[in-house]
Design a protein that fits this description.
Elements lengths: L18 E8 L5 E6 L4 E4 L2 E2 L6 E2 L1 H6 L4 H4 E6 L4 H4 L2 H7 L4 E4 L5 H8 L14 H15 L9 E2 L4 E6 L8 E7 L2 H12 L23 E6 L2 E5 L12 H7 L8 E5 L11 H7 E9 L2 E3 L2 E3 L2 H10 L2 E4 L13 H9 L12 E8 L7 E5 L3 E2 L3
The structure holds zinc ion.
The site of zinc ion has 7 residues, from helix 3.
Length: 380
């Protein structure tokens, strides 16, 4: 398989019951993580399509290492409905029939309308923006109608909500996955903002597009035995109590412990940084992983962001460089899909990079790091 050519495909049987894996994928526009939480159980956080091979990441990767995605994936989390986090989400949800689908209640106006009218086909609300969301709802609905579900159709993430848990058994450690965000205040604020753009009879007001704020992203806390991981999605710090990272830091109900691995939020951007996260939620020498983001002339992380992350983390790894890639030939089908998804072609990504971290929950050995080009160690 070319897209993982420099990373030796490993048989799933080689992953011990107590072995944790954090795999982060990113080509420069797009982000997805696959986490082995021990015992053969996996979770997927966000999805992307490799634009050159048209493959669904990380489904393709999991299958390449022998994972049965129909039975071994327990959660699929769509942290928020931005194009760089949900490409291929509906197909991933369709394939992972044993997985709960977790997402944020904060949606844009088209997605809310699609949810409200999810019992009927309505081309009015199935526009390009809501397309992936509508398709995901359709997959979940079909599953419910055919009587195959063993899991709830949608779990709305909320602060300190258990999404999955498994007791310890023999060498297999306990595992628990908890959402830390979005906060209730974020949900309230964004629903109020949404109300301002829905047309009201008698008022001559044109609805304007509503962009879901990044303080509504789902943040995931993973515990395997005594090892904890923090997946920051694109959550931003708002400077207000009750929302963003402040709400998580202030919460007395969040799981105890400190995370060893930190998926840095919002592609390392300064608006995702909060000093208290590093001092209160993470161990003294955490390993940071992140993906880049490029849109036209803009890119993340900046040189300043990289310097800040290197100052805070013992080690940091980036799936691909933030600099703009050379123009490369893309698969025509993917190009068409992306055009239809309102993603500007000039904003798109380069080669898919992969950062893989593994460690035994029951041991004391450090994290083993493997990088697939163009992933690299972050240097300030
Ligand atoms: Zn993003």
């Amino acid at each position: 398989m070319t897209c993982f050519g420099s990373l030796m495909p490993l048989d799933a049987a080689l992953l011990a019951d107590d072995e944790i894996e954090v795999s982060l994928f990113g080509p420069g526009f797009g982000e997805s993580a696959a986490i082995h939480i021990g015992g053969g159980d996996w979770i997927i956080v966000d999805t992307l399509i490799d634009e050159y091979s048209s493959t669904l990441i990380p489904l393709e990767y999991l299958q390449s290492i022998g994972v049965d995605t129909a039975t071994q994936v327990k959660l699929v989390v769509g942290t928020h409905f931005d194009a760089d986090h949900v490409m291929g989400l509906s197909a991933t949800v369709a394939a992972c029939i044993s997985a709960s689908f977790v997402t944020s209640l904060v949606l844009n106006e088209r997605q809310v309308l699609r949810l409200i009218r999810s019992n009927s086909r309505d081309p009015e609300v199935d526009d390009r923006f809501a397309g992936e969301y509508a398709e995901t709802l359709s997959v979940l609905q079909q599953r419910a109608q055919t009587g195959t579900p063993t899991v709830p159709p949608i779990t709305w993430a909320a602060p300190n909500t258990t999404l999955f848990q498994r007791p310890s058994s023999g060498a297999c450690p306990r595992a628990r996955v908890t959402s830390l965000a979005p906060s209730h205040a974020s949900v309230t604020m964004t629903l109020q903002a949404l109300g301002n753009v829905i047309p009201v009879e008698g008022f001559d007001r044109k609805p304007t597009p509503f962009r879901v704020p990044n303080h509504s992203s789902v943040v995931v806390w993973v515990e395997v035995g005594d090892v904890a991981l923090l997946l920051g999605s694109d959550l931003e710090e708002t400077g207000h109590s009750g929302t963003g990272w402040t709400a998580i830091c202030d919460s007395g109900a969040r799981p105890e412990g400190r995370a060893e691995i930190f998926k840095v939020p919002h592609h390392g951007s300064s608006n995702g940084h909060h000093e208290r996260v590093w001092s209160e939620l993470l161990v003294d020498e955490p390993v940071a992983v992140l993906t880049a983001w490029r849109l036209g002339a803009h890119s993340l992380p900046t040189a300043t962001d990289m310097e800040r992350i290197c100052e805070h983390a013992a080690d940091a790894y980036l799936t691909s460089p933030p600099a703009a890639p050379r123009s490369l030939k893309r698969n025509p089908a993917v190009e068409k899909t992306m055009k239809e998804s309102v993603i500007r072609i000039n904003a798109l990504a380069g080669r898919l990079g992969h950062v893989r971290l593994r460690r035994h929950a029951n041991g004391t050995s450090p994290w083993a790091v493997e990088l697939q080009t163009p992933a690299d160690r972050l240097r300030s």
